[in-house]
Sequence to fold (454 residues):
Amino acid sequence: MVKRRNGGIIRGLGPYLLLSLTLMAAYLYIAPVRTVAQSAAVIGIPVHFLASLPSTALNAMQGHLTSADQLRSEFEAMRQRNLILQTRLHRFEFLENENARLRQLLSATPSQAEQVTLAALIAVNPDPGALAVLIDKGSADGVYRGQPVVDAGGLVGQVTKPGLFRSKVGLITQEDQAVPAQVARSGLRTVVYGGGPNRPLRVLYLDRNADIRTGDLLVTSGLGGRYPPGYPVARIAAVERNLAESFMKIGAEPASHLGQDREVLLLWLPGAGASSPGKDETEAKAADD
Amino acid sequence: MISVSTTQRRTWVPFVTVFLALVLLVLPAQELIRGFLPDWVSLALIYWALALPTRMRVSFAWLAGLAVDLVTLGIPGAHALSKAVLVYLARMLALRVRTYPLWQQGVVVMLLLGLEVVLLAIVDLVTAGGLGELHRWTAVIVGGLAWPLVYTALRRSRHLANLSH
Fold:
């Protein structure tokens, strides 16, 4: 009886175990297999489409329900905002030129501008086990693994899994993500770690006497080369100094809207990734606060 | 045995329910509840393995798992492996578990889902060096609690499809 069942396990489950393990090993160690898997992921597109239907329909309905008055006032507010941003941009361009000139005088390497591509978020939850969002650009558009993703608020995360037409972006709130950052006010360098679902970001290993306080803005420092410098990462929400411990306990709130917006920006670092950006790219400058 | 119903058997119904479960899996959810949502595909596969142990094939579970891997852009083979194991065990236990009351079935389902999370955590540990999936144990408990709901819904679909064996 027992013997028969054992034979059953080997015949009933063995081939599938072997197949799965082979597939995983091949995916991890053989690059062409990874490309094939990326292409095979297109079978997910109809599934993603169906799953995003409810929220897309809801958005469309909201659009119909907004009154003309409301739209007009919204438009007016946006125009004013645009005007303010325009004037600030002029000043920014002036500062940028000045900065480049000063750098030249110091014969330092000029800070290079990144290229950006707009990517739309797809309203699905791509990975139930992780904090991630799905974007509608993939390796066909030149998206590569580890590419930084930002939105209007600041750093969103990095591309963790590029597919052919869709990519998974791991958020900075994910527990295994870390971002080299610095305090915008004091220039203090540190690393911001993700805290997991529904938890604040963590800033670890800062000395008790370090110059950091609630409300400070953390921007990317550019160390490590993955994220370009100057993008807002988080705002310090709570600083807990404990005399009995050598390090502070610091919680921070992400600066970006983390996938609440409908669009994000993919950044192409100058020199990084031998990939060609898509057609709809626009030139953007690294914002230095 | 005399067939009660003369209408046609709709053998495609299980496939459709598993596909719907796949859609449900990637449905957008607030971060607050995201961690608590069970793996609907596993629940659907367990149901069909318990209800039709002779017709449900491990190969179908494997393919469904592969589809999950591709749709969630994961490592292809991880969910395929865990779901094949899940359905194999569910088929083995089917005749015994089917006689249990619903809440007791829920406990068995919870154990199966728990085993799947452990398997996925091992895959994570080996491939990424971290226990990424292990925090999903809350989803396991919710999955067990949601079992009566899944059971009732899928039994209805099975009756509508005239799949009694």
